[in-house]
């Protein structure tokens, strides 16, 4: 995804403006300029010497501790550096602390790409002022939705998973997609954004599709029901589970690798959907945060 982001910066230069990527921190050190071979460097020292305006995190999630990303964000905030992240783990574990710290330091923490990639699941909130959010429901994991869609058509879970892997939708180890954990991380973030829940991923009750039989899917189909892995956040619950939806449910028609998000407010129900994964789409989520950040700061406009 890092590479796609660099390509997007280049392709959309006119709209994004004149940003310069001053370095890339990899496991084996800093490349600055980014084409140069990485040299071992300490992150604090890198932040002090490069002093970027924005730190962008596109590293893989570490759900044990959220590290090294969580510490990196805190170090960035201390130096007045904004953070844009595609990495769910720090937010699913430490949302309240990280947001609190960014507010205290008067910098922005932006994370559109963590849920539904470039489909504006998080940034939609900006254009819904004065709404009272009652609940958030979503189909938030494209791999499991693809598999359920295939099973509904009569294909076994194992064959559908193999298909998903061949098409590049599933991870080589798809456990976190199948057992509901990835969706649990995403609903944790959404519940904080829309319901101010203060939740962490440890508060989510989650189950996945790993044990569903084809027989169960086909029996549901006979009854006019379509099982979906639905993540739900309300004032009273935070969970991910398989729910057989009837055709009147707004998420019923979200099939294949698509994601869907249903926001119930006191005024109206809002449904958005779109492809929730893929490196270029996720990179667009990051890019959109960057443009919104730029537009919100007098320094850049
Ligand atoms: N791809 C998508 O569709 C998508 C959508 C939304 C969000 N995201 C999130 O965006 C992030 C990037 O996704 P991706 O698909 O590009 O993942 P990826 O292909 O696994 O790449 C992650 C990169 O992060 C590097 N990395 C891991 N730990 C690091 C550390 N401690 N320090 C420096 N670099 C580290 C990895 O290096 P090594 O190769 O050395 O491990 C790898 O190059 C992930 O958090 C992912 O969950 C992805």
Short structural summary:
With 301 residues, the protein is α/β, with parallel strands linked by helices.
Description:
The chain is of the alpha/beta class and about 300 residues long. It folds into 2 domains: about 140 residues, Rossmann fold (3-Layer(aba) Sandwich); about 150 residues, Dihydrodipicolinate Reductase, domain 2 (2-Layer Sandwich), CATH 3.30.360. About 40% of the residues lie in helices and about 20% in strands. The strands form 3 sheets. It has a 6-stranded mixed β-sheet with strand order 7-9-8-6-10-11. Strands 3-4-5 form a 3-stranded parallel β-sheet, with helices on both faces. α1 crosses α11. The chain is globular. The two termini are about 25 Å apart. The mean pLDDT is about 95. The structure holds NADP nicotinamide-adenine-dinucleotide phosphate. NADP nicotinamide-adenine-dinucleotide phosphate binds next to β1 and α11.
Number of helices: 11
Bound molecules: NADP nicotinamide-adenine-dinucleotide phosphate
- Name the poorly predicted regions: none
Question: Which CATH class of the largest domain applies here?
Answer: Alpha Beta
Largest β sheet strand count, sense and barrel closure: 6 strands, mixed
Domain tally: 2
Average residue-wise pLDDT:
95
Quaternary state reads single chain
Class per helix and strand makeup: alpha/beta
Task: Offer a few descriptive terms.
11 helices; globular; 2 domains; binds NADP nicotinamide-adenine-dinucleotide phosphate; Rossmann fold; single chain; three-stranded parallel sheet; 301 residues; alpha/beta; 11 strands; 39% helix
């Amino acid at each position: 995804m890092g590479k796609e982001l660099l390509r997007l910066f280049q392709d959309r230069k006119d709209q994004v403006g004149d940003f310069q990527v001053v370095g890339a921190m990899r496991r084996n050190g800093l490349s600055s300029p980014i084409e140069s071979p990485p040299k071992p460097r300490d992150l604090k020292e890198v932040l002090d010497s490069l002093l970027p305006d924005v730190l962008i995190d596109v590293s893989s999630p570490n759900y044990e501790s959220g590290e090294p990303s969580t510490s990196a964000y805190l170090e960035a905030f201390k130096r007045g550096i904004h953070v844009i992240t595609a990495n769910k783990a720090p937010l699913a574990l430490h949302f309240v602390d990280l947001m609190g710290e960014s507010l205290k330091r008067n910098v922005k923490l932006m994370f559109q790409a963590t849920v539904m990639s470039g489909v504006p699941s998080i940034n939609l909130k900006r254009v819904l002022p004065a709404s009272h959010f009652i609940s958030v429901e979503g189909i938030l994991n494209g791999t499991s939705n693809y598999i359920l869609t295939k099973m509904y058509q009569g294909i076994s879970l194992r064959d559908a998973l193999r298909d998903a892997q061949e098409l590049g939708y599933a991870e080589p180890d798809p456990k976190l997609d199948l057992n509901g954990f990835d969706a649990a991380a995403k609903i944790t973030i959404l519940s904080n954004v829309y319901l101010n829940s203060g939740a962490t991923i440890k508060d989510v009750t989650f189950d996945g599709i790993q044990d569903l039989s084809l027989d169960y899917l086909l029996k549901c189909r006979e009854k006019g029901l379509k099982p979906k892995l639905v993540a739900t956040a309300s004032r009273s619950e935070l969970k991910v589970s398989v729910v057989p939806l009837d055709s009147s449910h707004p998420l019923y028609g979200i099939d294949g690798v698509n994601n869907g998000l249903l926001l119930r407010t006191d005024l109206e129900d809002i449904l958005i959907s779109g492809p929730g994964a893929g490196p270029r789409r996720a990179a667009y989520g990051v890019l959109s945060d960057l443009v919104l950040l730029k537009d919100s700061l007098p320094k850049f406009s």
